[in-house]
Specification:
heterodimer, A: 646 residues, mainly alpha, 32 helices, B: 220 residues, alpha/beta, Rossmann fold, five-stranded mixed beta sheet, 7 helices, 25% strand, globular
Chain lengths: 646, 220
């Protein structure tokens, strides 16, 4: 090799060497100089070509550079260099070479097109647009030039200028779907929705098998709010076996806009399965899951998106929301910190993080007692609703407790307490008997003793009046106790009646023993009849008591009226006289009074020789039944209104 | 477990009918503590009374598969003329609890001193609440219904209540109404939001609190 170099530097040898592939030695030889500039330049070009084809692009570019420097004005050299530079990615240099060529051939339309391409690739968009426009001007019938110019203009945001070129291109090549698609994009950017839609549809119809057209048409429809049409189109494309990730993504968007979140989720899951590396898909999936309130899964989807694009704030912003909403403030705060790091000046992010911080303060453990964690819920045994027997037991417990309570409160402040409840009627009867005994000398209408006679009138009367009057206040006086779920209005009313009955019976027994003790012959001849009369008059009192209690809860002055009525009854019930002393027609009217009937029942059982013909026990029991039924149904029917909180 | 079946409840106010529940179906599962949230006037206390049985629903059924406490709230369940002791005895009697130990427990827990034998009318609000707590805890319930009274008394008494409930929570549950998110978080693992006649249950109290917080913000 070395001796051949010594021999000659002539052109033919070099051409031969290049053809033989001795490229390195040729390059060294050319670098040594010696030959004429034009010869060297052309040899450099041939060497560069050979190097390029051998794959040594960098060396090829160096050689082409050398050639271009040696003969900058030679069109052939410039032409070759422009070709080589473009192919080797040296767009800047290629652009210079094309410009040089265009200086020589100012009408070379394709040259302008090539120069525009190189300039655009080198980043000089303005230059690229100028050259492209020139090319399109020189050859107005070439659709490709027009499309190229339009795309450059559209890329620069100059849609109004771009649309002119696109429409020209569309006129020249009406069947090219790509042209229509670009045209549609610019029209949409300018807000010409109908035109954009029409073009997008035409592009899709021209080449329905091309996904790009289908995607563009769908996207255009979505932007033009033709949601249903978009969903149908993309579904049809996907069903036609042309399934791909972008298609499913678009279908998901369409279904989401149709509020069919579940269907949208299904579509995006297909898309993520096909293209798991797309962060935006995971982001979209997370949004859908969030809308379905499946917070945990949404969080996982956002986590995936954030992991795929660690510097993208959008997934992190979504993470923040979903963590916040599921109460995971610690994680929300951590992701908020990253968000602030990525975009420290974004006000919305700062606000969101501030919200998390505020909630964190609210939920930080303070100085109160923190109860133990309960990782798994403890097992509870369920009780069946109580049966009849246990319900009755409970009711009896409640009534019993209420009776005991009433004995404490009936004479609340008195130190005698329930003792006073007994003493009061005893004193009452004694005083009354004493007064009549002194005033009316002689014999009482029945029996021999005034005391006994009045006793037989007063006791049944008291049983009636005490129970019916006391029950009147049962609901109004026990409002707070009715807040206890076990305590019902029925219980508090009945408890009062029972207490009065028990009290009056005790009073009656005490008085009777007292009379016996002082030597008065005072034994009833028929204990059973006396007891029956007492129960009958008490039931009558209870019936009235239930009615009173209900009325009094709605009409506060009812108790006054009832008090007047009981006073009238005192005179109409044959307490200090016997109806037999009255004229017959008055007695027949008075006999309708059930309390009088009860008093006479009591007396007829007490005194063997007193059997009034107007006494009608069946009538009395009928009245008792009717009144009791009325009282209980009133209570039952209006129970809800009675126990409203006061 | 308490189950609401198609429960409706409304009450009259000065501004017309106020619907608290509108055909609500819900189950308060056993083994969980629920925090009930809602804006003022949503009817949280009414809901508690419905759960307790202090008030009947207008329609539907409330089924209780356990012993539910009376509502532990500021609205007294005590008779003013009776002493704290007598009221405690009354509660013990109606729930069939042993009388003497119950009274002793209440007297001990409520720390009312000589007031325990004086009429409840003479008590301060705090003392009444302490008595209510003691009386409620004295009875073994499966579910305790607490309405806004967890902030009674001083720090020490609150700690005592929390300790007592913690001990009770091994075999009982709590349904709680409170405006304090800390309290809800402290006692409850599940949440419920009452709004516009609907009751939504949450199996995460944090989520319920956040929703509620949002609602308050939207309302503001």
């Amino acid at each position: 090799m070395s001796d051949s170099l010594e021999r000659s530097t002539d052109v033919e040898w070099l051409e031969h060497a290049i053809a033989a592939g001795e490229l390195e030695s040729c390059r060294a030889e050319l670098g040594a100089g010696g030959l004429a500039a034009s010869k060297r330049a052309s040899l450099y070009c041939r060497l560069a070509e050979a190097l390029y084809y051998r794959g040594q692009a960098a060396d090829a570019v160096d050689c082409a550079d050398a050639a271009f420097e040696l003969e900058p004005r030679c069109p052939a050299i410039a032409d070759f260099c422009a070709w080589l530079f473009s192919n080797c990615g040296q767009h800047q240099a290629a652009a210079v070479a094309y410009r040089r060529l265009l200086e020589v051939r100012p009408d070379w339309a394709a040259g302008y097109r090539h120069a525009s391409g190189s300039l655009a690739a080198a980043g000089d968009i303005d230059g690229a647009i100028q050259h492209a426009a020139r090319a399109a001007e020189l050859e107005p019938n070439c659709a490709e030039f027009a499309v190229h110019t339009g795309l450059l203009l559209a890329g620069a945001g100059l849609h109004r200028d771009a649309i002119g070129y696109f429409s020209r291109a569309a006129a020249l090549a009406p069947d090219d779907p790509a042209v229509l698609r670009h045209f549609s994009s610019s029209a949409l950017a300018l807000g010409e929705r109908e035109r954009a839609l029409d073009l997008a549809r035409r592009a899709h119809v021209l080449a329905p098998g091309e996904r790009e057209n289908a995607h563009h048409a769908t996207e255009t429809m979505l932007r033009c709010e033709r949601i249903d049409e978009a969903a149908e189109l993309i579904s049809a494309v996907l069903a036609g076996g042309n399934a791909d990730a972008t298609g499913y993504r678009l279908l998901s968007a369409a279904e989401m806009l149709r509020e069919r979140i579940e269907v949208a989720l299904d579509a995006i899951e297909r898309a993520t399965a096909l293209a798991p590396e797309r962060a935006e898909y995971h982001q979209h999936r997370g949004n859908l899951l969030y809308r379905l309130a499946r917070f945990d899964e949404a969080a996982a989807a956002f986590d995936r998106a954030a992991a795929l694009e660690p510097e993208n704030p959008a997934p992190k912003r979504s993470q923040l929301t979903v963590y916040f909403d599921s109460g995971r403030f610690r994680e929300a705060l951590a992701v908020g910190g990253e968000l602030i790091r990525i975009e420290p000046d974004n006000e919305e992010y700062a606000q969101a993080v501030l919200q998390v911080l505020n909630r964190r303060f609210e939920t930080l453990d303070g100085d109160y007692v923190v109860l133990g964690e309960r990782p798994a819920p403890p097992i509870r045994t369920l009780r069946p609703p109580p049966g009849l027997w246990s319900a009755m037991q409970t009711q009896w417990r409640v009534i019993h407790a209420l009776i005991i309570r009433e004995t404490r409160t009936r004479f609340g402040d008195s130190s005698l307490g329930y003792g006073w409840a007994l003493a009061e009627p005893i004193l009452h009867i004694l005083m009354l008997s004493l007064a009549f005994a002194v005033l009316m000398h002689g014999r009482p209408p029945i029996g021999t003793q005034f005391f006994i006679f009045y006793y037989t009138g007063i006791i049944p009367y008291h049983i009636f009046v005490h129970s019916s009057s006391s029950m009147t206040y049962a609901v109004t006086a026990n409002g707070s106790l009715l807040q206890l779920p076990l305590v019902h209005t029925f219980d508090v009313i009945l408890a009062r009646g029972l207490l009065e009955f028990v009290t009056d019976i005790i009073v009656a027994v005490i008085l009777l023993t007292g009379f016996g003790a002082i030597g008065l012959a005072a034994m009833p001849h028929d204990f059973g009849g006396v007891a029956a009369a007492c129960i009958a008059v008490w039931l009558l009192g209870c019936g009235c008591g239930f009615v009173n209690a209900v009325i009094n809860a709605f009409c506060k002055s009812w108790d006054k009226l009832w008090a007047q009525l009981t006073r009238v009854l005192y005179f109409c019930s044959g307490i200090f006289y016997v109806p037999g002393m009255m004229p017959g027609w008055i007695r027949d009217r008075f006999a309708w009074n059930p309390v009088l009937q009860a008093v006479d029942w009591f007396r007829s059982s007490f005194f063997a020789d007193y059997q009034p013909h107007w006494l009608d026990r069946t009538y009395l029991m009928t009245v008792v039944g009717v009144v009791l039924l009325a009282g209980l149904s009133l209570e039952r029917g209006l129970r809800r209104s009675l126990c409203e909180p006061l | 477990m308490i189950r609401l079946e198609q429960v409706s409840k409304a009450y009259r106010t000065h501004n017309g009918r106020k619907v608290v529940l509108d055909r609500v179906n819900a189950t308060f599962a056993a083994g969980h503590n629920y925090g009930i949230l809602g804006v003022n006037g949503a009817g949280k206390s009414t809901l508690i009374r419905l759960l307790a049985g202090s008030e009947p629903p207008d329609r539907g059924r409330v089924r209780r598969y356990c012993r539910v406490s009376f509502p532990l709230g500021f609205g007294g369940t005590f008779h003013g003329a009776l002493s704290g002791r007598e009221n405690a005895a009354f509660i013990a009697r109606i729930y069939g609890a042993p009388l003497r130990p119950t009274i002793d427990y209440v007297g001990d827990f409520a720390e009312l001193g000589e007031y325990f034998t004086m009429p409840v009318n003479t008590y301060s609000a705090g003392m009444r609440a302490r008595l209510a707590f003691a009386a409620c805890l004295a009875i073994e319930f499966d579910i305790y219904l607490i309405d806004e009274v967890t902030e009674v008394g001083d720090q020490r008494f609150r700690r005592k209540c929390a300790d007592a409930f913690r001990a009770r929570m091994t075999h009982s549950d709590i349904i709680l109404v409170s405006h304090n998110p800390q309290t809800v978080r402290q006692y409850c693992d599940y949440g419920a939001i009452l709004a516009d006649g609907a009751l939504s249950l949450y199996d995460d109290v944090g989520a319920a609190l956040t929703r509620h917080h949002r609602m308050l913000q939207d309302a503001a």
